[in-house]
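Q: I have 82 residues here and want to know how they pack in 3D. Can you give me a structure?
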Amino acid sequence: MSSFRSKIGGLLLKPVFKKFKKQFDYTEYGGAILLGVDGLVIKAHGSSNAKAFKNAIRQAKAAYDGRILDDIKQELTKINFE
């Protein structure tokens, strides 16, 4: 931020960098989904804070409500019979 021009550029790019940071912030997602045919597991990062844990629970609920496991079972059944 040594010049007026760089300050204006930084100000204009601030929303872009904020969005980028949010996309790569592990606390926004909470963890990775591990899918099986009989259960759903969300594997959280070892240093997860309260926000990450809350989002892991939100992610698990979305997967459950979306009936992902039922869809997987249905597709595997189709594959086995073809």
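Q: Anything worth noting?
A: Strands lie at 32-35, 40-43. The chain has a mean pLDDT of 82.
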